[in-house]
Amino acid sequence: MPDPGPFILHNGSVIVESSWPKPDRDAQKHSERLIAHLRLQIDAADGWMSFADFMRETLYAPGLGYYSAGADKFGEAGDFITAPEISSLFGHCVAAQCAGILEHVGGDTIVEAGAGSGALAADIISEFPPKKYRIVEVSADLRARQQSRIKPEDVAADVDWLNGPEEIDAFNGVIIGNEVIDALPVERFRITANGVDAVGVVWNGAAFSSITRPAEETLIAAVREVEEQMGRSLPPGYCSEIRPQLAAFIAEWASKLQRGAMIWIDYGCSRAEYYASDRDQGTLMCHYRHRAHDDPFMYPGLQDITAWVDFSALAQAGTSAGLTLSGYATQAHFLLGCGIDQRYDAMRREAEDESRVLELNEQLRRLMMPGEMGERFRVMALTSGLDHDLIGFSFRDLSATL
Ligand SMILES: C[S@@+](CC[C@H](N)C(=O)[O-])C[C@H]1O[C@@H](n2cnc3c(N)ncnc32)[C@H](O)[C@@H]1O
């Protein structure tokens, strides 16, 4: 195959639909401060920044990044809506799964990674208060929002906040994260006739743009490992992402789990689906005011940047860290296994009027339907010292497809 040649994925020009809401002056100024910060970083790195570094800084630079600074992100007024924000049906089901695990391992602690607005934490705590509920949150802004929603003096659980897993002693219990792994930085790559290029970020004098250069050994090795595990090569021109931090992230969490489970919920699929031949531009997605698009350079600091989760890589990271893959299911099947239908019936019986019933129906639809979150979102349990089946995977377990 001929080398497809140098390739610029994005020209950096901001093409925004005229109907899209424009950021106000303060938001624009905030974005400009982040752009100035990113440009300094790019200059310091000789003009080329890896995409993972760009994503990390854009989302998490202290006081500047999308997650670190103050804009509304979650819910109708923000940029996207997550399952716990849609309905407490979700939190009640996750709580049922957590309660079962705690009972089996004689644990009393749930640790939530990246709690966002605090909706899932609030629902789990109100459903069955575990003795301890610990939230690991890297964003100071989100931590403040969570603390105004969950006031330790008002809830039955002992709640606290931590900066990272390094602050936790090993425990028996559950680690849970909804839409956290998709927010971990990814490297972007492009296959060439001669090897693998990294897709990095440059400042072109007016805007950020993507540009390729030959990848370093670690990225090449990671791409080759993906190909080896799939038993096929990716063709020249194929672009996608890989999450270099994933194995270390899971290993660190695994070192904290004596007996119990980690449950990760996110949009994603198996490796074979992730790197399918027709998905040749990767899965990178940006969210700005409920609009999804693929330009990571639009409004830096004002939009979310994510990529799907390769659940085969997640399972592999777990087993390499000494955990057992104990279940992998679509969100719909997981929620059914956790009894969402019974919970829905109970809430419907309690509904005060028809409008509440309609609201519940809409919530159920969004969580469960294949065209909504039901199939695109997957749930994976990685366990340690747990010899019981988990209810969330009793309906259907897709582990064999990974
Ligand atoms: C898309 S939001 C999801 C929030 C929430 N779990 C929900 O479902 O609404 C991603 C969250 O992951 C957090 N996060 C990102 N990197 C993290 C890390 N390394 N450890 C813990 N949390 C992280 C972010 O700060 C944010 O709270």
How many separate domains make up the residues? 2
Strand content: 15-25%
> From the coordinates shown, what is the CATH architecture of the largest domain?
3-Layer(aba) Sandwich
Approximate helicity band: 25-40%
Q: What is the CATH topology descriptor of the largest domain?
A: Rossmann fold
Q: What is the approximate shape?
A: globular
Number of strands: 16
Order of helices and strands: HEHHHEHEHEEEEEHEHEHEEEEHEHHHE
Major sheet: size, sense and barrel closure?
8 strands, mixed
Helix count from the secondary structure assignment: 13
The CATH class of the largest domain is identified as: Alpha Beta
Give the distance, in angstroms, between the N- and C-terminal Cα atoms.
30 Å
Low-confidence stretches: 1-16
Calculate the mean pLDDT score and round it: 91
Structure classification: alpha/beta
Gyration radius over CA: 21 Å
Bound molecules: S-adenosylmethionine
Describe this structure in words.
The protein has helices spanning 25-44, 51-60, 83-86, 88-105, 119-127, 140-149, 217-230, 246-254, 271-274, 311-320, 331-337, 340-350, 354-368, and strands spanning 49-50, 109-113, 132-136, 158-162, 171-178, 187-191, 196-203, 208-214, 239-242, 257-269, 285-288, 291-293, 304-306, 309-310, 324-330, 377-384. By secondary structure, the chain is α/β, with parallel strands linked by helices. It has two domains: 25-78 and 186-246 and 272-304, Rossmann fold, CATH 3.40.50.12710; 84-183 and 308-401, 3-Layer(aba) Sandwich (Rossmann fold). Strands 2, 3, 4, 5, 10, 14, 15 and 16 form an eight-stranded mixed sheet that branches. Strands 1, 6, 7, 8 and 9 form a five-stranded antiparallel sheet that branches. Strand 2 (109-113), helix 5 and strand 3 form a beta-alpha-beta unit. Helix 4 (88-105) packs across helix 5 and helix 8 (246-254) packs across helix 10. The radius of gyration is 21 Å and the shape is globular. 48% of the residues are buried. The structure holds S-adenosylmethionine (SAM). S-adenosylmethionine is lined by residues 67, 74, 82, 84-85, 113-117, 119-120, 136-139, 142, 178-180, 183-184.
